Amino acid sequence: MRKLIHLLITLLVLAVLGWALWRGFTHRHAGEEGEAKTEEAKGEEAEKPEDFIVTLEKEKWEALGIEKDQVERAELRPQRMAFGRVLDPTPILTLDGDLASAEAALAASRAESERSQKLLAAGESTSRKLAETAEAQFRADEIKADGLRRRALMEWGTEFAAFNASQRRAFVDALVRGEASLVRVDLLPGDALSTQPKSARLVVLGREDQSISTQAIMPAADVDPKSQAQGFILRVESPPFPLRPGMALTAWLELPDAPRAGFALPRSAVIRHDGRTWVYVQEEEEKFARKPVLLDTPLDGDKGWFVDEKLGGIGPDDLLVVTGAQSLLSEELKAQGGGEPD
Predict the structure, then answer these.
(1) What is the rounded CA–CA span in Å between residue 118 and residue 131?
(2) Is residue 327 part of a domain?
């Protein structure tokens, strides 16, 4: 009888322990599933675009001078960003002076050599030694001039080396007067182009609304010793403002590939707040949504910024606030009890 009682008690204890273990396992599994769903929900919320709404009566937003327009479609050829500086023209001025001097000496020695050879052939009173001396001087001047031209080709590219004396002098004079500039730009370290850029635009910090076009672009003869990046020499003529030697610039090198689709955002539509860039879109007559946008590339002149269709944050049907966006931001922050906009 006792053995039977002990057996029953043992079985009861084992049953209780088994039930407890089973309950603990199922609760833990359910908790993990709940946490996973919670994390997934958080991730979905994080992926949603972050919009901020400001509601204003029509009379008020009209009084603030709010103007709207449909988003303008635009295309942009693939570009590559490069950073550079305006070059000091002193080395090219020195090289031009050396070339001009060498070419003048070459012209004189060539004429003297030809005259001596004619006199010698005609039996005039000149010695063969004088004719040979003139010929040697001519060859020496020719070698010196050719060496300087090769140096121009190595340092400044094919375009400058191909200039004749008058073209070179006109270009150098433009450099001296500030009517032309040479700019050296380098790609980011590790970046490289397999094709020659078609053209380039330059932007100076603080003057993004005055992009500068280039008249020529050629590969640099050397590599920057610090970045080891691929470089280019750009020629600029008649810039909208003086380009001083050493001035830092950002270059956008246009590549000969298929263009990207996107939108052109007016500069007046873009506001900066909380370390990000935003635009306002009218969703209803009295409702405006502030949306984050990713500015891609500054466009020529007063066209504003290019925004990629897939990455920018706006769509083709958005009604964009093009005037008064800063006023809307002030009204939004007032309604939230926040401080002044950036």
Answers:
(1) 9
(2) yes
